[in-house]
Every structure is written in structure tokens, then in C-alpha cells.
Structures
1.
Amino acid sequence: MQPFTRSPGRVPGRIGYLRYTHFVLSGIFVFLLWYFVGPWIGEDNTLVALLWVLGGNILYYALAIGMAYKYRDNRAFCKILCPITALLKTTSRFSLIKVKADYEKCTDCGACEKACPMDIKIRDYIKDGKRVTSTECILCQTCVNSCPQKVLSLAIGLDIGGNELLRSRTV
Ligand code: SF4
Ligand code: SF4
């Protein structure tokens, strides 16, 4: 467990695009390993496979913890470097389940946005009368549980996401 309970917001600039570069480079790296190193190792070498898995996981954890401290954000790795998001964000656009609000009962207190670990400007979606269609939403329901008016909930519907309304950090 890391100590940064509240996200300071997105790092300004294009640093978030590193995720896509990482995704492409990871694919190339795996292909090269499979094509050139695979035949050399052979098909039946469980120990080598285990070492690769352990090494990869240790590297990922080290990066994630280091980035959390550098950016003062527990989810810095997810927001900047995680290659899996390239796939997840694509499918998230078409997700049937998204967060929605009862606009009439929202008091605009901002508690949901303060609690959101992914820096989503939830109130902006509410004011537009939309569900939270950001592909950054991880459906953690922290906002749902943080709303004092209990106006947020998960709802099934048909809409295509992709418009990203995200809170940037000020420093
Ligand atoms: S479900 Fe989680 S990620 Fe999605 S808007 Fe709510 S707090 Fe943010
Ligand atoms: S926490 Fe609830 S009442 Fe407050 S702004 Fe968010 S949705 Fe509205």
C-alpha cells in the first residue's frame, strides 16, 4: 500500500502517450524473443519461463512504486506507462456499464472528483447530462461510495465513450 491517497491530477503534456509507445515496443520485444531466443531455449524449459515471468513482474512493480513516489500518485504507472490500457481504453468506449448521476439531486459538492483515483471530472459529465464516458474510468465505484447525496450509481446503457474530461495537476 502506497501513501498517496488522493491523486494530485494528471501530469500536463503528452507524457500519457508513453503507454501506447510501451504497448508497441512490448509487442515487438515479445515477438523478437519468441522468434530469435525461443528456438534457442527450446519448448520445454519451465525454469527459464519462470525466471522471465518473475523478472518481468519485479521490473513492473519496481517501476510502479518508483513512479508513484516520483509523481505522488498511487496510479501513476497506470496513467503514464501501463501498456494494457491501450486495449482496455478501446473496449471501455463501448462498455454497457458506466457511472451515471441523478443530475437534479447533485449539489455540486465535488466529493466524487476528489475521491476519483483516475482524475475524472465527473461533474462535467453530470452537467452535460451524460454518463461518465471517459475511457479512463476503471469502474472502481469510489465516486459512488463517496457521494454524500447518493446520486451516483452504475447504469446500463448504450453510448460511445472517448471524450476525456480529466483534472490536471497545477504544479
Ligand atoms: S468509478 Fe472510479 S474511476 Fe470511474 S469515475 Fe468513479 S471513482 Fe473515477
Ligand atoms: S459527490 Fe455527489 S453530490 Fe457531490 S458533486 Fe459528486 S455527484 Fe454531485
2.
Amino acid sequence: MKLITAIIQPERLDAVKQELFNAEVYKMTVSRVRGCGQQRGYSEHYRGQIHKVVLLEKVRLEIAVNDEYEDSTIRAIIKGAKSGNIGDGKIFVSDLTRCIRIRTEETGSEAIG
Ligand SMILES: Nc1ncnc2c1ncn2[C@@H]1O[C@H](COP(=O)(O)OP(=O)(O)OP(=O)(O)O)[C@@H](O)[C@H]1O
Ligand SMILES: [Mg+2]
């Protein structure tokens, strides 16, 4: 199992959701977050020093999937989120060791799917 965490531009959320649905990925958690990447959000330079670091509004998606959905989920996120501009976002993939559906106490692949 994998936990796919994606940070995307908020205005891309609808497109990403559509692509995920097309890829038959229906379960997700979505949060509004703030962050900055390699441009440090917005920065002002004065005598070589950065004086201002601004955190930009972003959207975080957390999607837990069985291994066979890893690549298609990533492709769907890229398809929906990519404009080619800086700030398009980032995808982090982690190994997921446990998942438990509280209602039934099912675990692992059954609980995820
Ligand atoms: N290494 C990181 N650790 C944690 N969060 C990150 C990291 N890199 C990016 N993020 C998060 O992802 C958001 C979007 O990142 P962003 O797309 O700007 O990445 P980037 O590395 O600056 O690439 P680009 O040059 O395309 O802008 C950031 O605002 C931040 O919330
Ligand atoms: Mg950036």
C-alpha cells in the first residue's frame, strides 16, 4: 500500500478530482494548506539576503491506494495539475504499513479499496 500526498494549486483541484475519478480513484482527503517551494513563496532580495518569505495557499491531497493504483494515481494528478509553470506542485509517495476501516475492523487492501 502507498500513501500518495500531493500539493497542488487550489484552482487545479477540480481538474485533478476529475482525472482521479477517470482513473477510478474515489477516496481522498483534501486540505487547504500553505507552503512554499524552491522560490520560497515570494522573496525580496536586498544585499543578497532574503527579507521576506511568504507562504502561498495550496491544496493537499492524501490518497491511500493499493500498489497497483500507484502509477495511475500519480498520472492522474499530473494530468490535472500540470500547467508547466512554477508552483504546479509536488507529489510525495510513502510506503503505507497499515490501514484499518474502523466500522468493520477490516485491514490492509480490503480496508483501502
Ligand atoms: N521539499 C518539500 N517539502 C515539503 N513541501 C514541499 C516541498 N517542496 C514543495 N513543497 C510543497 O509543495 C508546494 C508546491 O511546490 P512547488 O510546485 O512550488 O515546488 P518547487 O520545487 O518550487 O517546483 P517549481 O520550481 O516547479 O515551482 C509548496 O508550496 C510546498 O507546500
Ligand atoms: Mg515553486
